[in-house]
Amino acid sequence: MGKLQSKTNLHTSKYRADGSAEKTGPVRGVQQYSPVHADAVTSVAALKPDLCVSGGKDKSVVVCNWTSGAVLRRFVGHEREITKVTCALDSKRVFSASRDKTAMMWELHGTSEPRQHFPGHDLVVTGLAVSPDASHLCTGSRDNTVCKWDVETGERLCRAGISRNLADVSPGCLLIPSPPQVTHLCWVPGEPYVIQASEDKTIRIWDSRELQVAHTFLGKRHIQTCCDVSQDGRYCVSSSGGFAGEGCEATLWDLRQTRSQVREYRGHLQTTASCVFLPRGLAPAPVIATSSYDRKVKIWDQESGACLATLYLEGAGPLAACDASTLLCAGFNAGVRLLRLSSRPALELEEVAAF
């Protein structure tokens, strides 16, 4: 277990004109465990009900018990910093992508060596999505390509990309346009579809069976930095780049009625770097969480678009939802933060631990 230290913050809450609470810091003591990474944490994902996986600039992938701060496994094999981590929920396999242009698979109960290696991109791997049954992996890169892999064999089944107006498609795959510089990938639960955000300001739906673009939503005005899919597979949320309040929103898309965006969530003042759906729980309606370079994590009412709670969090980075009331936030300068959503009586978000 990481070393536990006591830390008490006396910051208070202030209230916005719209009635939502904006916490400038947790009012209770924050449990401080020894940091699980030696440098900034770049990605985090929920693995099991009490486990998470994180990747950092220190080139390591760490499996940790988020209830105790205990490090269970540390995997080292990438040559450069980790850009993304992911896993199929309740799976024993963990996947990582890196600036070393590769992705790797690790076994939770296996050796410290990578179980599988996925080379093939020409630039940093920035998108990573695993199928719900953990049999296939999709990767995306700044080299403008998307690849599909067989997890068991490590074989690249398909690659789609366009470079200098010349098609670059592996045998057996359709000739299709490839999106510029992928920023994020996520798999639709129970479906063969992968959602992709990119620097060309669009959100695309890929049919993973032949790596074909099934639909492209109307482009936004700024780079789309991240995307997530609701547990029922009906909605997608994406986050937007921006500055001084221009852009910076999160956008809800209906994946079944692929015509236009459903709703926007506005309130961040700088690039919204991450967005996730939370399982239905404390709030009467479904909620969405976002984090931004403005050092704030916000909770939104999915249906009305209202901001329900705001937490000021220095170095707030990518988010992961553990359950209906628990969030993990990767810290660009402070490890992984454990956030708790509560209702007493209004909805509040607070930091309860860091590791």
Features:
355 residues, mainly beta, Methylamine Dehydrogenase, Chain H, 6-stranded mixed β-sheet, 35 strands, disordered N terminus
Helix percentage range: under 10%
Termini separation comes to 10 Å
Radius of gyration, rounded?
19 Å
Quick one: CATH superfamily of the domain at 1-34 and 217-331 and 343-355? YVTN repeat-like/Quinoprotein amine dehydrogenase
User: Which second-level CATH architecture of the domain at 1-34 and 217-331 and 343-355 applies?
Assistant: 7 Propeller
- Mass-distribution shape: globular
Spatial strand arrangement across the major sheet:
1-4-35-34-33-32
The low-confidence parts are 1-27, 162-179
Number of DSSP-assigned strands = 35
CATH topology of the domain at 1-34 and 217-331 and 343-355: Methylamine Dehydrogenase, Chain H
Mean pLDDT: 87
Give the helix/strand class.
mainly beta
Strand content: over 45%
Main sheet characteristics: 6 strands, mixed
Can you count the helices? Answer: 0
CATH class of the domain at 1-34 and 217-331 and 343-355: Mainly Beta
